[in-house]
Structures are given as structure tokens and as C-alpha cells.
Write a structure and sequence with these properties.
By secondary structure, this protein is of the alpha/beta class. Helices cover 43% and strands 21% of the residues. It has eight helices and eleven strands.
């Protein structure tokens, strides 16, 4: 794919291993050993993805992610030894696209990175309009169509549908959807997502078949 990947990791040995692996796949890895250096590189370059360690000196990965998301939609994968649910939820709230918990296999990390890059490129190419399974969403006007008929959605339903479309073919847990659609400070329960999914399906009618329930996992939008 020849992607340009920013690898932000303070552990030199791991950083070298990651760079060597991505380079062997034909990609162009760029190294940063701390958060400050990472932000400098992001200010000066365009990247296809960022692999971002959380626990770093000077500026941690969460702070870097928060700063990046003010101006940049580049895909971000956190590399972390933190596995607690609250840590992951905070990362998603700040704009992370995925998590890989240490220790990890290079092949899985690579696959996740390439999948995010492809998804991001599709979104860029589609621009203002996203289409999945006969459902069309126009981001600039916030209009939604099921086939040729316009569907009136509440703000929550619109954001939920947009999130599912942006993550087409990927399973989104209820917790992920809460974070991305409601925000980290939302005080309701994850089951609130089920209620909004039900209403969304009712409004989309026959086109709602593309919203799949994944038992014990969440929801997935597919063609």
C-alpha cells in the first residue's frame, strides 16, 4: 500500500522492530520517540496512520491524541499496556480509532492499520456523501435517504447512523457507540444504544436489514 506511518514509541527497541516490519511491507515508517516530537512531525507532514504509545515521557499519548483531533482526522491506533475498560473508553472519547494491547503480534497490528487506512481513504473519496446498502447520508446537510425517500432522524439517531457508516463492516460495541455518539460523560447505560437502534431501524424500513446485531458484541453495518 505504500502508506506513510508515524510510529510514536519511547521504547527504542520496539520502535525499531515496528519500523522494520512496516518497511518490509513496503510502507514508509517515520519515528518519534515522544509526544512532543510526534506533534512536531504531524504539523509538518501528512500521514496515513499514527501508531501511538500512551505511556511516554514529556507528553503522553492521550494528550497527543487530544491535540491531533482538533485539526486532523488521521487514523490513530493506541499501543498500550493499559487494558482497563475505563482507559479504553477515555481513548475512544479523545478520538482513537482502535487499541492494540501489549504484547501484540505484528501481523495483527499491521492488519488493523491497513484496514483503518483503507476505511479513511474511502471516506475521503466519498466526501460529503456516504452510501451503504441503499442508505445515503449527506454530512453537509445532515440529510438521510432510504432509497429515494428522505428519512427524518433525531440528532442522536443521525450521529449513530453516521458512526456505523463510517465504520462499515466493523463490529461496534455498545460502549464504543456510546463514547463516539453520546460522549464519554454520558451517564446512561449501554442498553440505551439498543433503543436508538430500534427506532433507527423502524425509520429506515426495509433498508434497515444492513444493520446487523452481533450477539454479545454490538452492531455492524454492512452491504
Amino acid at each position: 500500500m505504500n502508506g506513510k506511518i508515524l510510529i510514536v514509541e519511547d521504547e527504542e527497541k520496539l520502535r525499531e522492530v515496528l519500523c522494520d516490519y512496516f518497511r518490509s511491507k513496503g510502507d514508509v515508517p517515520i519515528e518519534a520517540e515522544n509526544g512532543v516530537q510526534a506533534l512536531e512531525l504531524l504539523d509538518e507532514n501528512e500521514f496515513d496512520a499514527v501508531l501511538l504509545d500512551i505511556m511516554m515521557p514529556e507528553l503522553d499519548g492521550l494528550s497527543v491524541c487530544r491535540a491531533v483531533r482538533r485539526t486532523n482526522d488521521v487514523p490513530i491506533i493506541f499501543l498500550t499496556a493499559l487494558s482497563a475498560e475505563e482507559d479504553k473508553l477515555l481513548g475512544y472519547e479523545l478520538g482513537a480509532d482502535d487499541y492494540v494491547t501489549k504484547p501484540f503480534t505484528l501481523s495483527v497490528l499491521y492488519a488493523k492499520t491497513m484496514a483503518l487506512i483503507k476505511r479513511n481513504q474511502r471516506n475521503i473519496l466519498s466526501g460529503d456523501r456516504m452510501q451503504v446498502g441503499g442508505i445515503t447520508l449527506e454530512t453537509s446537510t445532515r440529510r438521510v435517504f432510504a432509497g429515494k425517500a428522505e428519512v427524518v432522524l433525531t440528532p442522536k439517531e443521525y450521529v449513530l447512523l453516521r458512526c456505523l457508516m463510517q465504520n462499515k463492516n466493523m463490529v461496534m460495541s455498545r460502549e464504543q457507540l456510546l463514547v463516539k455518539c453520546w460522549g464519554y460523560d454520558y451517564e446512561g447505560e449501554a442498553r440505551a444504544v439498543d433503543t436508538h437502534i430500534k427506532r433507527l431501524r423502524e425509520k429506515l424500513g426495509e433498508y434497515s436489514v444492513c444493520i446487523k446485531t452481533v450477539i454479545k458484541a454490538g452492531y455492524r453495518l454492512e452491504e
